[in-house]
Design a protein that fits this description.
The chain has about 450 residues and is an all-alpha fold. Helix content is about 75%, strand content about 0%. The protein has 18 helices and two strands. A two-stranded antiparallel sheet has the order 1-2. Helix 7 (about 145-160) crosses helix 8 (about 165-190). It is globular and about 65 Å long.
Length: about 450
């Protein structure tokens, strides 16, 4: 049987932008701002950056090592690197996690497209705070509209994935990531020029050390894990397309910096506007779909046309961030089906797309009037998927990956990949990495895991 030719990224820029696009998503533009608002602002950011350095980057390098060493989809990569060790089968769990996340993440991505459309036709203009609450509730519980947008966003992802690694993922990343940064900077500039915007900037950059407590540390640890797409299979899958010359440590640091900068810029985009109109910064998960439309409307009430444009650009930005991550999640499962079942790439991508449409439709319907028939343990299927993947699978896969790399994979193999077969003079840095991945990362992840289950 002929061996499948392994795809690869065509340039260093493509490696960085595609992998950064995988990490940069709703976790940065949606989750990071509301987590920052709920955990004291600047002090949360300081701890978060520390967590990225001590937890996020070593975990990312571990997935890079597995993916590039094996040059295979995530499930097969773990089997190749782990050998007969039972932990090698966690690659399958990672693929399953990415697959399940794709199903419900596509629903939220579809909401972003709906809000672009609503902004274009003026549906988000002229309402009071209760209007935006009712608008989101009515739309998200509708039996048809959210599913339509879910199908559309999944087929956009399918179109990119079907064109392959270089002509699809890499080309799309080179277009979308710079566009995302430009949109971010435009909205940040507009938000920071509002009256009393300085209060929001101070909230983000002037730490109040009295706010530090265990919950802030745990929140920052969890956010660094969520934000950098660790344990979803994305990082490992993309690393399998890296060349042998790619510096894994440098790439991880660059991606960590991009990821953190985007998250902080998202805060600069949101909090100056929120403080300008007196909105509480800890509005929680509803921030972008309920609170922010009202914030934009109030902040630019003297210039309705500008408010309309900023609202439109914001939801375009949000959709772009959601799509870059959705593409990487889709690729995890596509690569698995393509290689494990020897399917043509387009067929594998179509199988994943259609499966995720079914999952997405069920998750969306579970939030609507028929939701009582689509529940488990008193939760909607949407919330069940979110809980199982985010609070169980992600920390468990991350923990076991660190244990596998730190304690069972031969250190020579790990060192060879870390140092590019000895061509990089970073052996001392390797020992720092190995200490973090053997001791610090597993303990931190275990702490997060037990806290999320209310066991500590």
């Amino acid at each position: 049987m002929a061996k499948l030719e392994r795809a690869s990224f065509g340039s260093k820029l493509g490696v960085i932008l595609a992998t950064a696009g995988s990490a940069v998503g709703l976790g940065n533009v949606w989750r990071f701002p509301y987590m920052t608002g709920q955990n004291g602002g600047a002090v949360f950011i300081v701890i978060y950056v520390g967590c990225v350095l001590l937890l996020g980057i070593p975990c990312m390098i571990s997935e890079f090592i597995i993916g590039r060493r094996a040059q295979a989809n995530t499930a097969r990569a773990f089997r190749k690197v782990g050998g007969t060790n039972p932990l090698s089968y966690i690659g399958y769990m990672s693929v399953l996690t990415g697959f399940l996340i794709t199903g419900y993440y596509a629903v939220v991505s579809g909401w972003c497209l709906q809000y672009i459309w609503a902004s274009l036709i003026g549906q988000l203009q002229g309402g009071d705070p209760s209007f935006f609450t009712n608008y989101f509730a009515t739309f998200s519980q509708d039996a048809v509209k959210p599913i339509f947008w879910t199908i559309l966003v999944l087929f956009i992802a399918f179109f990119v994935i079907a064109h392959g690694v270089r002509d699809g993922i890499e080309r799309a990343s080179k277009l979308m990531m710079p566009t995302l940064f430009v949109l971010l900077l435009v909205i940040v500039g507009a938000a920071c020029m509002l009256p009393d915007a300085g209060k929001g900037i101070e909230f983000l950059f002037k730490p109040d050390w009295s706010m530090i407590n265990g919950d802030v540390f745990l929140g920052a640890l969890g956010q660094s894990f969520y934000s950098m797409s660790i344990a979803m299979g994305c990082i490992c899958t993309y690393a399998s397309y890296f060349s042998k010359q790619t510096n894994l440590t440098t790439s991880a640091v660059q991606i960590g910096v991009i990821d953190s900068v985007v998250a902080i810029l998202a805060g600069l985009m949101i909090f100056p506007a929120a403080f300008s109109v007196g909105v509480n910064p800890d509005s929680g998960p509803s921030l972008i779909f309920i609170t922010l439309p009202n914030v934009f409307q109030q902040a630019f009430s003297a210039m309705p046309a500008v408010g309309y444009l900023i609202s439109l650009l914001f939801y375009a930005l949000l959709s772009m961030a959601a799509l870059t991550s959705l593409i990487s999640l889709h690729e995890v499962s596509t690569a698995f089906f393509q290689e494990e079942f020897r399917m043509p790439r387009r067929s594998a991508a179509l199988v994943v797309t259609l499966s995720c449409i079914v999952m997405g439709a069920v998750c969306s319907l579970s939030l609507g009037s028929s939701g009582q028939y689509l529940q488990l343990f008193g939760k909607s299927l949407f919330d069940v998927f979110d809980f199982v993947t985010g609070q169980l699978f992600l920390p468990l896969v991350g923990f076991l990956t660190c244990i596998l790399i730190g304690w069972f994979v031969p250190h020579k193999m790990v060192r060879d990949e870390f140092t590019n077969q000895g061509t990089l003079h970073n052996v001392r840095l390797f020992h720092v990495y190995l200490f973090l991945v053997k001791y610090v990362c597993p303990l931190c992840i275990l702490w997060i895991f037990l806290h999320q289950l209310d066991l500590i």
